Amino acid sequence: MKILPLKITDYDRVYALWQTEHMGLNNVADTRDGIEKFLRRNPNTSFVAELDGDIVGAILCGNDGRSGYIYHACVSREHQNKKIGTRLVAKVFEALKAEEISDVTLAVYSDNEDGKRFWERMGFRARDFLTYRNKALVELEWYD
C-alpha cells in the first residue's frame, strides 16, 4: 500500500469512497470545483491510500496558517482495521508539522461511535466545554 498526495485527478474515486454515513458532504465544498479550490490552497496536507491501483482510503486536511483541520477521512469498509487510517493520519501529522502547524482539529458526528474511538486512539480528545456551530453563507445541502 502507498500513501500518496491527494490530487484532483483522484476526485471521482475519492468522492465514491466518501459515499458513506457520517461524512458530512455538501453540494458546494465537496464538488470537484470545491475540492480543486481546497487543494490549491492546501496542496501538501491531503492524502490517499492506494492498494493495487485502487484508492482504499483518503484524508482531506488543510490549515489556515495557525491550526490544521481534518475535514473528511475514510477507509473503505473492507480495508478497515488494517492500520490504513492510522497511516493516513500519521502522514497528515507529518505534513502539518512540516508547515509549522501546532495543532489539528476535527469534528465527529456524535452518533459515530467507531469514528470517536478511532480519533481517541489517534490522540484526539473531546472538548466537551465547546459547542460546534456554523453558518452557511450560501444555500447548502448536506448529504449524510
Automatic annotation (TrEMBL):
The keyword Metal-binding does not apply. Its EC number is 2.3.1.-. It comes from the Bacteria. Residues 1-144 form the N-acetyltransferase domain. GO terms for molecular function: acyltransferase activity, transferring groups other than amino-acyl groups. The gene is ypeA_1. Pfam families: Acetyltransf_1 (PF00583). It comes from Methylomusa anaerophila. It is an enzyme of class 2 (transferase). This is Acetyltransferase YpeA. Keywords: Acyltransferase, Transferase.
